[in-house]
Design a protein that fits this description.
single chain; 11 helices; elongated; mainly alpha
């Protein structure tokens, strides 16, 4: 039996107002992650289903926490809202995961789509978000990134269902996330720290960024070493 299926979920519209977004989104997504789906994605990433199940749960909780924290601001809610409207997510075109996982090519395309969505939603926070979630799940970078990108379109599809069901606009979506992000951020306190940072505090992940910082630190070192060396040479000349 799938580890994700030990949850009681009622599917009537009247309970879309569940107390927490984690109950709402996470449980609905877990139901979609059937034994067959978990088995196929496990084979794709090279893990056993027993390893994949807890990893999916950890990454999913962190992903939804990040979405809720980011979406609680008007700007963040707008990016999610615009993405959902642009891609025309709705209850009738939810992703068919059995079809997505039919071939490696389809699965790769779906994961690439998820990567695009992640970048659109999180911008310059994406790389650090990935590091936090993947480290927490105890996964290697390649495997963790694939699971995160696999889950992202599914999560957006479920958020679209909530938007359509509640007829939310951008402000309504922001309010919805604001009310719920406290519970989700408890899953991983690092997420709240990440989304409270200013742009200048986001750590550098790119090669260019690393080189820039490396050159800057090297320049600073020589700034102090050069006069010391010059002084030592002068003393040596005088003592000859």
């Amino acid at each position: 039996m799938c580890l994700f299926c030990n949850y009681s979920v009622i599917y009537s519209e009247s309970i879309f107002c569940i107390n927490t977004i984690e109950m709402n989104l996470t449980d609905n997504i877990k139901v979609a992650l059937s034994d067959v789906v978990v088995d196929k994605i496990s084979r794709f990433i090279g893990l056993s289903p027993l390893e994949t199940n807890p990893a999916l749960e950890e990454v999913l909780s962190g992903l939804l926490g990040g979405i809720a924290l980011n979406g609680s601001s008007i700007k963040g809610a707008e990016s999610i809202f615009d993405l959902i409207k642009e891609k025309k997510f709705n209850q009738s075109n939810s992703f068919n995961l059995d079809s997505v996982l039919e071939t490696k090519e389809k699965t790769s395309d779906f994961i690439n789509l998820g990567s695009t969505f992640l970048s659109f939603i999180f911008g310059n926070k994406q790389s650090e978000l990935e590091d936090i979630l993947i480290r927490k799940a105890g996964l290697s970078k390649p495997i963790g990134a694939k699971l995160l990108c696999f889950l992202t379109p599914i999560a957006l599809g479920k958020i679209a269902e909530i938007i359509n069901s509640k007829n939310l606009d951008t402000q309504g979506l922001s309010n919805f996330f604001t009310k719920e992000n406290k519970d989700l951020s408890k899953v991983n306190p690092e997420l709240r720290s990440l989304f409270s940072k200013t742009k200048s505090e986001i750590k550098i992940h790119s090669i260019e960024g690393y080189q820039s910082e490396h050159v800057k630190s090297s320049t600073g070192l020589w700034k102090w070493l050069f006069p010391v060396m010059a002084l030592l040479i002068l003393i040596w000349i005088l003592l000859r």
